[in-house]
């Protein structure tokens, strides 16, 4: 209780200073909007709001211990200057930030009231002992004057009323904090639950697509070849006594087909998970992938250590599928792969570009759909940009372990 009253007394000055500074930034930015300095002042206003909301959230959490997560700046998925402007706009319309600013404004007003009540409390306590230092006449208690004879009664009564009002203000501050700021945690928990459901659905969908792809590759590739090997060996068995030379040729043909089937099985297993990815890391795995590509690939990989098995596997799969699409469908002549580890953001980021004809779209059950579902299952994001006429680019960002 005393802590809440102390906070309110502090906010009477702090809040006034904060809103005065924000008002100056807003007025200056609007007044000088035609100049660059006006845009800078408005940018300062937006992030001043965020800074004030961040401090207010930390203050309420320190006072009440609601378990509030700290505010985090919202980021636009877009790139370049347009992405920067979109980020500023997202920050400006953040509902959690505005609720916290509203709480700060109300708490500042309560702080002014608290100072007024503290003055009455001190005046009442002093007036209760007025007969000890005043012989006759009126005594001022707060903004009122009382005869010295009744000063102890009125002083005590006003002091008690002021103390009760201060306690009421402290309780009101706690109620407002629960109403305005505590729902931020509930909203974030709801969003986390929604994201978890999306990730679960993405994982299920990715598993189904992977199973379908494996079945298709086995049915269309390895299975017919193995059937052909069996039939060839059967024919050789029938001719081995009557026509040994033809039988030898058939056995040689079956041997060649068997080696081709083994190669296809290795490629299929590599498509599920590249063993070199576990042994030597993403950089080496991508180098091997680029070496097998049907179009020239320029690699630019910069990583500080390993990023986690799941993250590296997802990024490898996305790059492999993108290069396959570029070679089969886009008529591309070159491709570029950029990979960066961003430990400050806790993500592994990659971008695949090709100079093809563009027009790529996410089709249910297709390769790009598989990329999207696998990335989503890990809580990451995937963004495709493929206008008609090209070029095509795919960006993925996956949370990593380092």
UniProtKB/TrEMBL annotation:
Q: Which residues form a coiled coil?
A: none
Reaction catalysed by this chain? ATP + protein L-histidine = ADP + protein N-phospho-L-histidine
Q: Name one GO molecular function term.
A: protein dimerization activity
**Residue ranges of region Disordered?**
382-402
Does the keyword Glycoprotein feature in the UniProt annotation?
no
The family database entries (CDD domains) matched by this protein are listed as: HATPase_UhpB-NarQ-NarX-like (cd16917)
* Any single GO CC term annotated in Swiss-Prot or TrEMBL for this entry: membrane
Identify the EC number(s). Answer: 2.7.13.3
Domain Signal transduction histidine kinase subgroup 3 dimerisation and phosphoacceptor stretches: 210-275
| Any matching Pfam family | HisKA_3
Q: Which UniProt keywords apply?
A: ATP-binding, Kinase, Membrane, Nucleotide-binding, Phosphoprotein, Transferase, Transmembrane, Transmembrane helix, Two-component regulatory system
Q: What InterPro entries does UniProt report for this protein, alphabetically?
A: HATPase_C_sf, Put_sensor_dom, Sensor_HK_TwoCompSys, Sig_transdc_His_kin_sub3_dim/P
Q: Where is the Putative sensor domain?
A: 14-180
Membrane-spanning intervals of the chain:
30-50, 104-133, 153-176
Q: Which PANTHER family match?
A: NITRATE/NITRITE SENSOR PROTEIN NARX-RELATED, NITRATE_NITRITE SENSOR PROTEIN NARQ
Could you identify this protein by its name?
A: histidine kinase
What is the scientific name of the source organism? Answer: Microbacterium sediminis
């Amino acid at each position: 209780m005393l802590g809440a009253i102390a906070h309110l007394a502090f906010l009477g000055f702090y809040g006034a200073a904060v809103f005065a500074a924000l008002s100056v930034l807003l007025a200056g930015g609007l007044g000088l909007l035609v100049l660059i300095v006006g845009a800078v002042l408005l940018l300062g206003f937006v992030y001043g709001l965020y800074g004030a909301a961040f401090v207010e959230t930390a203050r309420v959490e320190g006072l009440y211990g609601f378990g509030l997560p700290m505010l985090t700046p919202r980021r636009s998925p877009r790139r370049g200057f347009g992405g920067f402007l979109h980020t500023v706009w997202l920050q400006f319309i953040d509902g959690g930030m505005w609720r916290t600013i509203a709480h700060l404004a109300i708490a500042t007003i309560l702080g002014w009231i608290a100072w007024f009540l503290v003055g009455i409390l001190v005046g009442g306590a002093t007036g209760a002992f007025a007969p000890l230092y005043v012989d006759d006449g009126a005594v001022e208690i707060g903004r009122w004057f009382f005869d010295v004879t009744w000063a102890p009664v009125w002083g005590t009564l006003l002091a008690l009323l002021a103390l009760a009002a201060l306690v009421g203000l402290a309780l009101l501050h706690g109620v407002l904090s629960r109403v305005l700021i505590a729902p931020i945690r509930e909203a974030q928990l709801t969003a986390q639950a929604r994201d978890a459901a999306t990730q679960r659905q993405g994982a299920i969908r990715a598993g189904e697509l992977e199973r379908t792809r494996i079945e298709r590759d086995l049915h269309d590739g390895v299975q017919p070849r193995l059937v052909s090997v069996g039939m060839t060996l059967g024919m050789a068995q029938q001719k081995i006594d009557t026509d040994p030379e033809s039988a030898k040729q058939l056995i040689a043909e079956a041997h060649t087909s068997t080696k081709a089937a083994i190669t296809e099985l290795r490629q299929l297993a590599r498509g599920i998970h590249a063993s070199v990815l576990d042994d030597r890391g993403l950089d080496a795995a991508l180098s091997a992938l680029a070496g097998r590509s049907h179009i020239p690939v320029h690699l630019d990989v910069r990583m500080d250590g390993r990023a986690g098995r799941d993250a590296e596997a997802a990024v490898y799969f996305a790059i492999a599928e993108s290069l396959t699409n570029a070679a089969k469908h886009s008529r591309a002549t070159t491709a570029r792969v950029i990979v960066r580890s961003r430990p400050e953001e806790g993500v592994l980021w990659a971008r695949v570009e090709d100079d093809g004809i563009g027009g790529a779209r996410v089709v249910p059950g297709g390769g790009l759909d598989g990329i999207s579902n696998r990335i989503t299952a890990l809580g990451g994001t995937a963004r495709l940009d493929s206008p008609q006429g090209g070029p095509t680019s795919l960006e993925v960002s996956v949370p990593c372990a380092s």
